[in-house]
């Protein structure tokens, strides 16, 4: 059983994570407005840019999962981003069926310009913590994400609650 002080601290951390998530969404919204894009288009663009930063590739199907859009809606979104010159769909030379999403150099420069001040502030905050503390925080976030992903998977297959019809 958790001690009341521990519960209060856990609630404070949870609230901090909620606030961080809200701020992240707001930065995404502002980035979209700055680029003149719909917020969902900017969210997709951020996912593509983030995958590239990690050295990973992102397929249209995986992007669809990441931003919770249907395949047809994701195709329409990618058509808009491609037409605007923000992304390219490329095919792997060894397996032509595999489509990979890549951002344009122009949009990479725009994203760097927009997010650089935030990145500098975040780096300054992280500089206050030791490598061991950052490893612990990384482990904590990884475990939270795994718990959330497991719950999302269960929730996606759960039956909705019985609804009582309203009168009148």
Task: Describe the protein.
The protein has one domain (10-150): Orthogonal Bundle (Arc Repressor Mutant, subunit A), CATH 1.10.10. With 168 residues, the protein is mainly α. It contains six helices and two strands. Helix 2 packs across helix 4 (71-83). The protein has helices spanning 4-35, 39-53, 60-67, 71-83, 105-126, 131-157, and strands at 87-91, 99-103.
* CATH-defined fold name: Arc Repressor Mutant, subunit A
Q: Based on DSSP secondary structure assignment, what is the total number of beta strands?
A: 2
The H-and-E topology, N to C, reads as HHHHEEHH
Structural class: mainly alpha
Number of helices: 6
Helix content: 55-70%
Domain module count? 1
Biggest pleated-sheet summary: 2 strands, antiparallel
Radius of gyration: 20 Å
Q: What is the C-level CATH assignment?
A: Mainly Alpha
Question: Poorly predicted ranges (pLDDT <50, ≥5 residues)?
Answer: none
Terminal CA distance reads 46 Å
CATH homologous superfamily classification:
Winged helix-like DNA-binding domain superfamily/Winged helix DNA-binding domain
- Determine the strand fraction and express it as a percent band: 5-15%
Mean pLDDT: 91
Q: Indicate the overall shape.
A: globular
The CATH architecture is Orthogonal Bundle
Strand order of the largest sheet: 1-2
């Amino acid at each position: 059983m958790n001690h009341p002080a521990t519960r209060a601290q856990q609630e404070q951390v949870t609230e901090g994570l909620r606030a961080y998530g809200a701020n992240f969404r707001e930065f995404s919204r502002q980035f979209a407005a700055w680029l003149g894009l719909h917020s969902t288009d900017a969210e997709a663009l951020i996912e593509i840019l983030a995958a590239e930063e990690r050295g990973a590739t992102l397929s249209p199907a995986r992007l669809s999962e990441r931003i919770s859009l249907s395949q047809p809606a994701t195709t329409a979104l990618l058509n808009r981003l491609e037409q605007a010159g923000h992304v390219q769909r490329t095919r792997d030379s060894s397996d032509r069926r595999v489509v990979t999403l890549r951002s344009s150099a122009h949009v990479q420069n725009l994203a760097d310009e927009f997010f650089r001040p935030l990145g500098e502030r975040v780096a300054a905050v992280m500089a206050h913590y030791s490598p061991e503390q950052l490893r612990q925080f990384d482990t904590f976030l990884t475990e939270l994400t795994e718990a959330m992903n497991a719950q999302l998977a269960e929730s996606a297959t759960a039956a909705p609650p019985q609804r009582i019809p309203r009168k009148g």
